[in-house]
Design brief:
With about 250 residues, this protein is mainly β. The chain has two helices and 14 strands, in the order βββββββαβββββββα. Strands 1, 2, 3, 4, 5, 6, 7 and 8 form an eight-stranded antiparallel sheet that branches. Strands 9-10-11-14-13-12 form a six-stranded antiparallel beta barrel. A hairpin with a 7-residue loop joins β10 and β11.
């Protein structure tokens, strides 16, 4: 399996025009929400989601040490505004070496920032997930692989669980394409994107996007979307949020 990292180059951050679809054709997210774009001084971009008024959840591989990070807001004219982050905490069990070797690791991080947005609730218990179950992702990534101008718009896709889901990794696919042809899925810039599940009538964050493949498990987008579930790491998220003075959304 040839997995792709989903970090968008900052040189492609600000689109000249709104794209029509995430990979395969997912619609933009409407209304207020806490999804954010995170950009780094090394030229990378990812997605995150507010889980408290001043705290963003994202993937650990999106915020490696040695760089500065900002959040991007867009006004009604799609003009970007950068906001400073205050601190970053990566899960202590995250291993970049393990991640680079395409193995599951604690790919979870928290970013402290003033006014993160509308917080989403996090589900901390182990999920009972079976192949065919539906999860929804939000991301600012590319809609067309290799076309940097197609990124920068928050879009949503509902995908189906495939394979043997567990507490270390969940794989998603477009139920219409079934990883046999290009379809909906995370793409470059969607690392750290929130993964939601309807639990008791509430859309709750249950994981973050870590990687993708093209159809047939080739490198790229539009095949599989790899998710790091949060159940194992929820105690760390709660404890770290308290230390940062940012209690989670109820």
């Amino acid at each position: 399996m040839r997995r792709s990292l989903l970090i968008l180059s900052l040189s492609f951050l600000f689109p000249a025009a709104s794209a029509s679809a995430l990979v395969g054709g997912a619609p933009p997210v409407q209304g207020p929400n806490g999804a954010v774009m995170i950009v780094g001084s090394r030229g990378n971009s990812c997605t995150g989601v507010a889980i408290a008024r001043d705290l963003v959840l994202t993937a650990a591989h999106c915020v490696p040490p040695g760089a500065d990070y900002k959040l991007v807001e867009f006004d009604a004219r799609r003009q970007p505004k950068l906001r400073d982050t205050q601190s970053i905490a990566r899960h202590p069990q995250f291993s970049q070496k393990t991640f680079d070797a395409h193995r599951a690791t604690a790919d979870v991080a928290l970013v402290k920032v003033a006014g993160a947005g509308v917080p989403s609730p996090v589900h901390g218990e182990r999920l009972k997930i079976a192949p065919g179950d539906r999860l929804t992702i939000w991301g600012y990534g590319l809609t067309r692989m290799g076309d940097g101008k197609s990124g920068g718009t928050l879009r949503s896709a509902t995908l189906a669980v495939t394979g043997q889901p567990g507490n270390l990794q969940i794989r998603l696919m477009d139920p219409a394409a079934r990883n046999e042809r290009s379809g909906l899925g995370a793409c470059t810039g969607d690392s750290g994107a929130p993964v939601f599940r309807d639990i008791g009538g509430r859309m709750m964050v249950v994981g973050v996007v870590s990687w993708s493949t093209a159809a047939g498990n080739e490198a790229g987008c539009g095949g599989l979307t790899g998710v790091t579930p949060l159940s194992l790491y929820y105690p760390w998220i709660v404890e770290t949020a308290k230390k940062l003075g940012s209690p989670l959304a109820p």
